[in-house]
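Lab notebook: predicted structure, single chain.

Context: the supervisor wants predicted structures on file for every construct in the current expression panel, including those that have not yet been purified. This is the next one on the list. No modifications to the sequence; it matches the entry in the shared construct table.
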Amino acid sequence: MTSLRACDATAGQARASFAAATLVAIFAFILFRSTMLPGVELGDSASFQVMVDSKIISPRDAYPLYFAVADVFHWIVGGEAARAMNLASVLEAAIACGLIVVAAAELSGSLSAAVVAALMFAVSYTFWSQAVIAEVYALHILLVALTLLLLLRWEREPSLGRLTLFFAVYALSFGNHLMMILLAPAYALFVLVAMPGGWRAALAPRVVVPATLLAIAGAAQYLWNLRTLWFTPMPPASLSEGLQKFWFDVTKADWRSVMMAGVSSDLTRERLRMYAFDVHQQFGWLGPALAIIGLGALAWRSPARALLMLLAYAGTVGFALSYNVGDSHVFFLPSHLLIALLAAPAVALVGDFLNSRLAVAVVLIVLSLARTYRDFPALDRSHDQRPLAALSALTEGLDDRRDVLVIDLNWQLENGVMYVGKHERRNVAHTLLSEVLPHAPNFLRDNAEIGRAIVLNGNAKAQFDRSPFGGRFTSIADSRVSPSTIADLARAASRGTRYVLCALDPVPPFVIDQPSLSDALRRLTGGRLASLGSRPYAMVAGLVGEEPVITTSESVPFRERFALDGLDVDMRMEAWLVFDTIRRMGFGHVIAGRQHTLIVERGVSFVTIDPTGAAIVTGYDGNIFASERRYLVGSTSP
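Prediction complete. Output recorded below exactly as produced.
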């Protein structure tokens, strides 16, 4: 009878855990789906979107599991490739949130505390921003949460089957992101410490053999990438040469060697300030405080589990702090997950101290929902058409029967052009300047003979003019596009119109057109202002032609709330510019009347605002969204 009751209790707990996880996953799916980017993104996301359904994935592309899942998902849902891949991230992120509930309950022994942890993470700024675009991080977090859960359940009920399942999922996870290796020391030590029979039992053949075979099976995912080398114009001469090239490309050894442990010692303090800013952006100060308490509570109850969480946190955050890459904030994501999971034991402890776990959980859930309400406008990309608009402006009026677009672009835009050419506008012929410059005269002549013009973007024209062939050809502005400067937009704005203008230090080689910015400031402020100073974060807001309502210039990110002619405006700077050069969600936001009025980029970002908070006109300078001229090239000499 006692045994039956115990089974019934266990089954009831499992049902309650599944129900809570499902509800949180549904909440997360609705949240992420309602704020999802509708189409193409720039940068890495565009390269993922262009590769969907491709049968050839190079070692440089890597991520075989991610592409396999994306291909299956696109086959199921159909439609536009970019939208399908964004939706795949939404679903993966929602499932991850459900798994976090179960993992946090396993860690804390409290389902209500687990729901708190999952909601804290679901609405954290960086995870939310990655859950609405085509990126590998939603699936990465899903796999981290799942491997942690499997390991914790094995420790509670040890069996070779449970351990083998953990090995299988961990090996599979390497097909999505090699960052999983950062968890290996924590996972391995936990197995050695928690194994019944001690560390010798963990090294027995019955454990080592399946672990080894599964690791080989996990690595076999990359045969897809390796095979591609033999389809290139210059295939490897031998398997050994192929393996060397594969390893170089799949690990991106050429730039990882510079970026890994690439933060100089004199910037260590600045990096720590960035991380403090980053953690506060996700959770405020309550989240890390709860995590510290939770780690202490876990250490008291289960030292092995505390050691697992501490080592996993140290490995992931240590790597991210030393990784000199322009989007290092996304590499902090696993540490965010561990902070949220460690908050669960703290919530349970505080609940026990106050004699009401549920009451404490309800208060913290309400706080998470309040954060959701606060951040929703800033993280809502459901109406963000900037990537497609930038790419459409670049390809406007082009037709492969009449034109060939030759580009030399920032890599983020270049990836976007590849997507547009493959999926959105198949009638646009395009190529890279680097591919045609060595034989430019023949290229121009051959296209001229079939009646096609050569169209260059601004950077391509500058490179072409400096080439040995530049003097033999003339170029004229393509009248089919008419880019506007920030000064043009300011002059076109009616007096009394609400506006916000932000200036953040641009990322080289981008530069701000200072004369245009000065003209715009004079026009907007009625001649009262011609400069925003030299600090990296600056903004001015007011009514066109009148004295500014607010002018701010700071050395660190800031947030300002003010009113423009009765309209409430929230100005949020969201990036640490010393290190952040790439942020898919933007470097800041202007929220007017709870509308996402402007996504602020590095360089100049400008918007005029109607009485409801909607953007009237938006403009950029000194960044990837700045409009630029196109040029037509023709011969001047034989």
